[in-house]
Amino acid sequence: MFLQSVKNAVIGGSLAAGLFLSAGQAFAGKGSFKIGDILERTGKFQTLTTALQLTGLDQAIAGDDALTVLAPTDKAFEKLGSETLEGLINNPEKLSEILLYHVIPGEVGLFEALQAQEAATLNSASVSFSMEGFGFFVNDARIVFPNIRASNGVIHAIDSVLLPPAPPSIADIAAGNEQFSTLVAALQATGLDQVLAGEGTFTVFAPTNEAFAKLGEETINALLKDPETLSNILLYHVVPEAAVEAATAVTLKSATMANGKETKLMFDGKDLFINDSKVIATDIMASNGVIHVIDTVLVPSAK
Question: Do the Cβ atoms of 145 and 156 come closer than 8 Å?
Answer without folding.
Answer: yes
